[in-house]
Amino acid sequence: MLKPFEVHIQAEPLTRFAPVLGDARWGALRAHAEQASARMAGRTFWNVNSTARGGGVAEMLPWLLAYARGAGVDARWLVLEGTPDFFHVTKRLHHALHGSRGDGSALGARERALYDEVLRDNAEELLVLVRPGDVVLLHDPQTAGLAPVLAAVGARVAWRCHVGCDTPNEEVERAWEFLAPGLAAARLTIFSRAAYVPPQCADRAIVIQPSIDIFAVKNQPLAPEVSRAILAHTGLLRPEPGAPEPVFTRGDGLPARVSRRADLVGLGAASAPETPLVAQVSRWDPLKDPAGVLMGFARLARDSPGLRADLVLAGPSVASVADDPEAATTLNRVIALWRQQPHALRQRVQLVCLPMADLEENAAIVNALQRHASVMVQKSLQEGFGLTVTEAMWKARPVVASAVGGIQDQIVPGVNGLLVRDPSDPAEFARAVGSLLEDPVLAGRLGAEAHQHVLAHFTGARHLTAFVHVLEVLDARAADPLP
After folding, report:
1. pTM of the entire structure?
2. Which among 282, 284, 360, 380 is least surrounded, fewest beta carbons within 10 Å?
3. Is residue 301 packed enough to be buried (19+ CB in 10 Å), middle (13-18) or exposed (0-12)?
4. Residue 146's domain spans which residues?
C-alpha cells in the first residue's frame, strides 16, 4: 500500500522581511498576513507534491509554508509515494507539457491505469487528514488525479502547474487530455506564464510566478574566500594556503561545516581559484541541455583559444531524486560526450554530482558555486520558470540563458543578463558567454541590475501576497458548480 508522508515545517517569522522591503511594502505584507490568518482560521492549507528533494517545487515549498505558518496559517506538506512505473509515466507527462516526446513512450490506457492506481492508494491516507473547507494545493502532473476525490469531501482544491510550453503542439495536447479527468475537479489552476494555460482551464486560471527565499541557506551572503573554501573542500577548486573553514549558517541560525565531497568526473585537476568559471546548476534532465552546454563551451574554446575559463556542470546526486527516473541516463550521456572531447578540453570541464544527504549542506555548496562563478548559464531547451536563473541573479551574477519559458520573464536582454534566442545554436551560446568573460565591466553591470530585479519581483513577500488572492478566489468559488 502506497501512502504519502508528511514533511514537517517550522514557522519562520515574517519580521525578517522588514529591513529588506521598506516601510510601504512591509506594511502591505503584514496586512496580507493578517488577512490570510483570519481567512484560514480553523482550516488547514495542504500542499501535495511528489518529492521532498530536488527540483524547484521541493525548493520552494519549505520556505513558502514556513512563512505561511509564521503568518498564522496551518500550512502542511505531504509528499505522495509512487512506483518506478508511475514516475516513468509522470516524467513522460512532464516532457509532453514542455512539448517534447521524451522517450516516446505511450500515454494510453495502461499508463492511465498505473497512474490512477498509485493515486488511489495515496488518496486513502489523504482522506484521513483532509477536512471539508481545507485548502489543498496540488503540484504538477503527478498529483492532478487526486483532485476529484479531495473535492468530493469538500476540500477547496487548486492545481499548480510549474511547467509548460510557449507554443503548444500535439505532445502538449496529449498531456492535457491525459490530465483532464483530474483537472475537471480543481476550482482553480495556477500557472507560471499565461502562455501555459490550456483552453480547458482558461476560465479558472491565474498566473503566479515562482520566487526564491532570499534568506535561505542557498541565498545567504558568503564571503568570497568562504565560497572558495567550500568549493575547494568539495573538490571543485584547488585549495588555497591559509583558507578559512568551509562554513555556512544553517536555517536555525547555527554554524555548520561542509563535510561531504562531490562526485566528480574530470581529469583530476581542480580549477585554480583565479580561473574564470562558467557554471550551470540543474537537475540531470535532457531539457536542461547539459550536453548542449558542454558543446557550446567546446565551441567557445575553439573560437577563442586564448580565453581562460573552465566549465562546471553540476546537478544533484542521481540517486537522490525519487520522481526523476531519467537522471542517471542523462548524466551517463553527458559523461560519454565528455569522453569524446579532446584531452585539452576535458581538462577544463568538470561534471559534478552534488551530495544530497544534507539538504542545507547541498544548498551551501550551490550557493558557493553560484557566487564564485564568473558567468552562470541556463541553456534549457524548455523551461517552466528557471529558479536557478533567479538564484544566480540574486547573487549579482551575469547570466546567459535560453529565451524559453519563464526565463524570458526574468532576463531583460542587455539590461540584467543575456538571452540566447536559439537554444540549439552552440555558436550563439558561445558568443554570449565569451562576451561576458571578455568584458568584466559589462558582466558586473548586468549582475548588479539582476540583483535589483529579483528584489523587486521574485521574493517570498510577493509570493505570499499572491497566496492571499488564491484563498479569496477559492472561497468565492466554493459554492459554484464544477464545470
Report:
1. 0.86
2. 360
3. buried
4. 5-211+459-476
